[in-house]
Amino acid sequence: MKQGDDGDLPGFPHPREPHCSQSMYNAQMACFVSCIRSGQPPKPAGVEGWVNMRIVDAAYESARTGDVIRL
């Protein structure tokens, strides 16, 4: 999407209402930093994201081709 001259993305009213409180984002970042410092993988870890992306990619491929995509 291309930003307008005022910096807003087209189709989004200004100002947008926050969907989550800042404290949730702060807690996520604190957990992430803790994982880095302790050498522990975050939960969910990268493999969960990879699996989710394979499913999303398969859904798009199925929509594009009309075929069933087997993972």
Protein model, in words:
With 71 residues, the protein is mainly alpha-helical. Helix content is 52%, strand content 0%. The longest helix is centred in the last third of the chain and has 20 residues, at 46-65. It is flat and about 45 Å long. The mean pLDDT is 84.
TL;DR of this structure?
With 71 residues, this protein is mostly helical. The chain contains two helices and no strands.
What are the main properties of this structure?
single chain, about 70 residues, mainly alpha
What shape does the CA trace take? flat
What's the helix-strand series? HH
Q: Structural class, from helix and strand content? A: mainly alpha
| Unreliable residue stretches | none
Task: Enumerate how many helices there are, as a single number.
Answer: 2
Distance between the termini: 31 Å
Strand percentage, roughly? under 5%
Which radius of gyration do the C-alpha atoms yield?
A: 19 Å
Helix fraction by DSSP (H/I, runs of at least 4): 40-55%
Largest sheet: none
Number of strands: 0
Average predicted local confidence, pLDDT: 84
Write the layout of secondary structure elements.
Layout: H1 22-38, H2 46-65
